[in-house]
Amino acid sequence: MEKSCSLLIHFDKGTPALANEIKEALEGNDVPAKVDAMKKAVMLLLNGESLPQLFITIIRYVLPSEDHTIQKLLLLYLEIIEKTDSKGRVLPEMILICQNLRNNLQHPNEYLRGATLRFLCRLNEVDIIEPLIPSIMNNLEHRHPFVRRNAILAVMSVYKLPQGEQLLVDAPEKIENVLTTEQDPSAKRNAFLMLFQCAQERAINYLLTHVDRVSDWGELLQMVVLDLIRKVCRTNKAEKGRYIKIIISLLTAPSAAVTYECAGTLVSLSSAPSAIRAAANTYCQLLQSQSDNNVKLIVLDRLNELKTSHKDVMVDMIMDVLRALSSPNLDIRKKTLDIVLELITPRNINEVVLTLKKEVVKTQSGELEKNGEYRQMLIQAIHSCAIKFPEVASTVVHLLMDFLGDSNVASAIDVVVFVREIIETNPKLRVSIVTRLLDTFYQIRAARVCSCALWIIGEYCLSLSEVESGISTIKQCLGDLPFYSVSEESEATDSSKKTQQTNSITTVSSRRPAVLADGTYATQSAASETAFSPPTVVQGSLTTGNLRSLLLTGDFFLGAVVACTLSKLILRLEEVQPSKIEVNKATTNALLIMVSMLQLGQSYVLPHPIDNDSHDRIVLCIRLLCNTGDEVRKIWLSSCRESFVNMLSDKQLRETEEIKAKAQVSHSQPDDLIDFYHLKSRRGMSQLELEDEVQDDLKRATGEFVKDENDANKLSRVLQLTGFSDPVYAEAYVTVHHYDIVLDVTVINRTKETLQNLCLELATMGDLKLVERPQNYTLAPESSKQIKANIKVSSTETGVIFGNIVYEASNVLERTVVVLNDIHIDIMDYISPAVCSESAFRTMWAEFEWENKVAVNTVIQDEKGFLDHIIKSTNMNCLTAPSALEDECGFLAANLYAKSVFGEDALVNLSIEKQSDGKLSGYIRIRSKTQGIALGRNKDNTQAEGKQLILVILIFSSTRQQRLLDMNLRLLHISHL
């Protein structure tokens, strides 16, 4: 059997003569040199050296030493060395240390006694321990608590040995007597722990005898009591009524650790509303009393679990949970808001929104560094509240509009998106929102916020006064025209000079545009640059010209949005303004603004000219104002808003579907047993037990929230490990529980002989770790055995489990080895579809550094079918609205999102195009926060079929460079994607 090791320490072994140096130092009289020599010896033993020549030296020169450090190192040395031979018998020289251990157990110094007793807890050799039993038992009555507590642990470890019950027949009785008289908290805890693990009935009797005094016990003992209650109630659920009172009494314990464990135990044992409410109250108190951020995050996780299973109880605790927003940590605030937003009801919405408004006001103080990020989180939370309950929108929308000009662009974008949605869903607020938006528009400094605000102005300015105010606000923010100018000394002289220079053969000049003082345009020759100043940009007023400032930085997309907004306002002005003169005047001014933007974009005063898309958009607006038809007018004034309404409807539909998908489905069988509550005897049952019975009956009647797996899925997890012709047949059923993998291996002896010492030897590759090594078995002829193996998973990395079965047969002198097939862990078990907002997706896409881009080459010719297959194969969720994927246009772009059980984000963008020959081409781009691997694997190995798609598997971990190299090599062999 393998030796347990709790710590591996690297030690440079140095030269081969180091053992001789250690031996010389141990034989000397220098105590510090002996200490260093013992440390080196222990290090060498931990790194695999045997050093048999040092044993006698240590017995002769180290054993008699009185120095405490040397004695402690001696115990470490004795713990590490081999004490048995190959047949499991104790080595004869080990008897030499028994007398020394007995002397230590009787030594007048309590430290040596305690250290030796602790050393005995790690010994498994009965031949060494048996002579020391009387000395161990005598230490149970030592005057010092340090000795007594270690003596109790030594008794427990000896009693747990295979022959421990014969060595210490009356140990439970003696430990129980010690428990009744012991005053030291640690020793009392160890005594109760010994009874709990070795004589559970005695521990239960002691606990029930002293029920009224449990709240006065020490923290360590109370923790063991809770462990005992959990174990007893798991094995016998009918007994939990006897222990609920103990748990309730411990909820008010002064120790935070005890109250936390109490609340967790109460939730695991009872589903009664009063019990859940008591546990939730305890968690909320810990949330307020504890200053450690890690503790708060753990408590919030527990509250989140309660919210999932007992939402009706947690709704009443929403204001207590909101108090956690007082913490300056953003992770705590985010988790708190996530919990609260799912507990909102019509009863508490006003209180929640009022609290959130107060928090938003606090962020204006600017005392904390991350006020902007916190404000963004609050705005998003208020947005969610207003969408669920539109009646509260009027109380928050005007407050949030003060942040349209926020220096944190993300917060301002969230505010303007919130305003855009509220103005459509709340018709009563439209007039006040438009008025407030026009008043605060000049404060906006971000281009994206200006674009969205302009769209709102263009769509929702309906009355004559609103339209005129909208046009006036845009003109004021654009400032005076033109956007740039060229100064000249004399127009007439310069014009004649230009004519002469143009007619001259020897002078070649280029002509440049110039804007004159009256707004007309002229040309200027490069030959006359000495007479003219270079063109300069007219900045205008920075306080009122936010649109002008953004335009002069080269943002012509915003210029196109300005042109579209002016076009909509002019078209609507024609409907509401009876005076044609005013309409023509407004149209002329709008056309002048558009032409000025085109002139600015085509000039050389900016480093980058106007892009083609913005140029075409502005030209389209100019043509629209010059010649307007009824159909075009309908498109501009009605269709845009209808598209926005459809987008909101799709968003609400998707959110509803996601909520339904998250909801657990109950299943019940028609022949399931139902216990009728009113026919039960209530004698001797407390109110809590009665509530618990009701909840159990309801669950049993409506069905536990368990989803039965498909039998086909179960069969797909059965893996054949050996061949049918092997003497031992083995197959494994793989079960994945988030961080754990359970292998249920069935081993069948197909021979007519008994197989002895049969052992399943497993090894792992990747971030997998075998928890424990399976033990040896004896397998009768043609019999089978179920062997379970637990494997820990630390990341979503490709993992492989391999191994063999080793056994001995009676007619074969050597051990036989059967090599097992490799087990490849399916990473898709660790990835699940997830949901995030479009803005959050874009933010993560911009922040994540690692990207893999794979070309699409598939036989599938339908764009939507290709997307559906990618979603099904990769276990991801499509964030793109279904309405955006409906029409057949030959192009498709979609965003996919998923999260692993380790909290890692997976982002995928699919962009494909249908070629003239019917084939699809394009790219799949995968992004993650850390370095990762994107592997291609064909789901269908049949070449004749060839229609299955390559499955993109996302694996996120802190991978090494060799894994990236392996990824690139694998990608070279991908034939279909």
Automatic annotation (TrEMBL):
<dbReference type="InterPro" id="IPR002553">
    <property type="entry name" value="Clathrin/coatomer_adapt-like_N"/>
</dbReference>
<dbReference type="InterPro" id="IPR011710">
    <property type="entry name" value="Coatomer_bsu_C"/>
</dbReference>
<keyword id="KW-0968">Cytoplasmic vesicle</keyword>
<comment type="subunit">
    <text>Oligomeric complex that consists of at least the alpha, beta, beta', gamma, delta, epsilon and zeta subunits.</text>
</comment>
<dbReference type="InterPro" id="IPR011989">
    <property type="entry name" value="ARM-like"/>
</dbReference>
<dbReference type="Pfam" id="PF14806">
    <property type="entry name" value="Coatomer_b_Cpla"/>
</dbReference>
<feature type="domain" description="Coatomer beta subunit appendage platform">
    <location>
        <begin position="814"/>
        <end position="936"/>
    </location>
</feature>
<keyword id="KW-0813">Transport</keyword>
<feature type="domain" description="Clathrin/coatomer adaptor adaptin-like N-terminal">
    <location>
        <begin position="21"/>
        <end position="471"/>
    </location>
</feature>
<keyword id="KW-0963">Cytoplasm</keyword>
<keyword id="KW-0653">Protein transport</keyword>
<keyword id="KW-0333">Golgi apparatus</keyword>
<feature type="domain" description="Coatomer beta subunit C-terminal">
    <location>
        <begin position="670"/>
        <end position="808"/>
    </location>
</feature>
<comment type="function">
    <text>The coatomer is a cytosolic protein complex that binds to dilysine motifs and reversibly associates with Golgi non-clathrin-coated vesicles, which further mediate biosynthetic protein transport from the ER, via the Golgi up to the trans Golgi network. Coatomer complex is required for budding from Golgi membranes, and is essential for the retrograde Golgi-to-ER transport of dilysine-tagged proteins.</text>
</comment>
<keyword id="KW-0931">ER-Golgi transport</keyword>
<protein>
    <recommendedName>
        <fullName>Coatomer subunit beta</fullName>
    </recommendedName>
</protein>
<keyword id="KW-0677">Repeat</keyword>
<dbReference type="InterPro" id="IPR029446">
    <property type="entry name" value="COPB1_appendage_platform_dom"/>
</dbReference>
<dbReference type="InterPro" id="IPR016460">
    <property type="entry name" value="COPB1"/>
</dbReference>
<keyword id="KW-0472">Membrane</keyword>
<dbReference type="InterPro" id="IPR016024">
    <property type="entry name" value="ARM-type_fold"/>
</dbReference>
<dbReference type="Pfam" id="PF07718">
    <property type="entry name" value="Coatamer_beta_C"/>
</dbReference>
<dbReference type="Pfam" id="PF01602">
    <property type="entry name" value="Adaptin_N"/>
</dbReference>
